[in-house]
Amino acid sequence: MNTMIDTPEALIRLAGITKVYGSGPAAFQALRGVDLSVQAGEFVAVMGPSGSGKSTVMNILGCLDTPTSGSYEFQGVHVETMDRNQRALLRRHFLGFVFQGFNLLGRTSALENVELPLLYRGEPVARRHAAARAALAQVGLDGWEDHTPAELSGGQQQRVAIARAIVTNPAVLLADEPTGNLDSQRSREIMALLSELNRQRGITILMVTHEPEMAAYAHRQVHFVDGRVDRDSRTPVAEVGA
Amino acid sequence: MIWNTFLLALREIRRNLLRSFLTILGIVIGVGAVITMVTLGNGATRSISDQVASLGSNLLMVRPGQRIGPGGSAGAPMFKVADVQAIAAQVSGVKAVAPETRKAVSVVVGARNWSSVATGSTRDYFTAAGWTLNGGRIFTEAEERGGKAVCVIGATLQRELFGGGDPLGESMRVADFSCQVIGVLAAKGQSAFGSDQDDTIVMPIRTVQRRLTGDQDVRTLLVSASDGNATNAVKARVETLLRERRKIGANEDDNFNVLDTKQIAQTLSTTTRIMTTLLGAVAAVSLLVGGIGIMNIMLVSVTERTREIGIRLAIGALEHEVLLQFLIEAVVLSSLGGLIGVALATGASIGLSSLMSIPYLFDPAINLLSFGISALIGVVFGFFPARRAARLDPIDALRHE
């Protein structure tokens, strides 16, 4: 995997990204020139104190936000010039999201939650159901298809959210503090699941966390301080969990 | 995608059943009221035109005097039977013309007595006034010429004096003479002016003139235009002839007037139609109010479901897909209200028209129109909330508590 890092075909390439909120004297510079490349198949933990810009960079990476300046290439395509709908289509076809607060649709069964992204892709109902069941089975929720979020534990809800994120076979999974609302036992289970998805299916994972224990599951830790990449370190695969 | 969105909207409505019902109540009432008002109005219009038609088809009523009503005929000479013969002989496009002279009488059969009106006329009266027989026969020409005491009675007299039994051949005492019943008229029901048309006795005009009125006057001429002849053309010819016969100078006003029943029917129908339109318009206002109710609920719903919208946008829903979802939700809601309104209106219209004894006329146009407008209201009043949802920023929406 390390051999891929220096190839020019980076999956994601940020160059000189800045982000300014507001204007005039009230302006706040959240990002001050971020350069970051991510290869396909990497598992990257994004860390840093609050206000360091890690959430902003994740929003830009997730195509939910646009940078003020700089360039963002996704599979060699410039994203920073895309309009709202183009970015939505990019999210639909290449990205999966896992949030700290799970963000499942309430009063909606696990199966319906998981098949939601396929619905927007216009997949026929039989394919939707099959794919959603397979995704739920992969996250270990066989037999829980008809339960609504209220009937599931926090750990199970996050598994449903992960199933929803991977059901489309995304190129990148963006996880924003996926274990932030879970106890340590559930957190380890979720991290084990993410590691497995990364290892077995080769899904590139970008994960924001402030817990070093969770960051240790990733192969690479990117530290943000004051809107810049402060440290970019790699953990050899063998050392994970050591 | 549209079908899925539709199912999604139905699910959303089912989730908030009570709220959805209250939301569409305004539309239900609006659609229901509009359809009921228009249906009842149509029934009333039909009822009136039916009643006027029962006076006789294409009927002109000619009376002495310049206007209708008490005192209207003061000073104006009455018609004579000769006028009837003149019209029959000289005016083209006339199917039947009959004199009419009436007298209130009391009628006695055994122990029963009844106040009615005796009408003296000719055999043509039955054609002109649109009467058909329910039994027996009308008087013969010989009976007419001889002024025989024979009479054809209406359904009301048959009921009141003969207890609904067979009166043919029986005698009844009319004023101070005895009269043989030779025929029974088929019932016509109430007239447009509320009087009972079946409370009538028809005799040869000579009988009435000799035995009841004691003069040779004819109070009314009934002129029935033949089919295909415009009544106003016949009316003009009758007027010209009568002016001649009554020796009215070119600068003088008519001393008689010709009433066209078709005109009366049209006037009455127009009046009811205006009332129907007015009532329908008032009801339509409640449709508008219902639409505002839907907009209000949809705005609340968008605020409530901000996070859901955020999730949808984050996983790749396009702006127009979110817009469509909320728009369809609003349209499904309002159409549902429209459907319930149509069902309610059908029930209310059937019930009320039987209560008001007017015919129930199902009007597909107004049902479709009202339903269409209810769906349109969903589009119009759902658009603003839907656009607000579609334009949310996904990051803000996801953060929304």
TrEMBL record, chain B:
**Membrane-crossing residue ranges in chain numbering:** 21-41, 278-302, 322-345, 365-384
Q: Which residues form the MacB-like periplasmic core domain?
A: 20-240
- Whether Cell membrane counts among this entry's keywords is yes
Give a GO molecular function annotation for the protein: transmembrane transporter activity
Q: Tell me which residues make up the ABC3 transporter permease C-terminal domain.
A: 281-394
Kindly list the GO CC terms recorded for this protein: plasma membrane
Protein's cellular compartments:
Cell membrane
Q: Which UniProt keywords apply?
A: Cell membrane, Membrane, Transmembrane, Transmembrane helix
| Mode of membrane association | Multi-pass membrane protein
The family line of this record is: Belongs to the ABC-4 integral membrane protein family.
Q: What is this protein called?
A: FtsX-like permease family protein
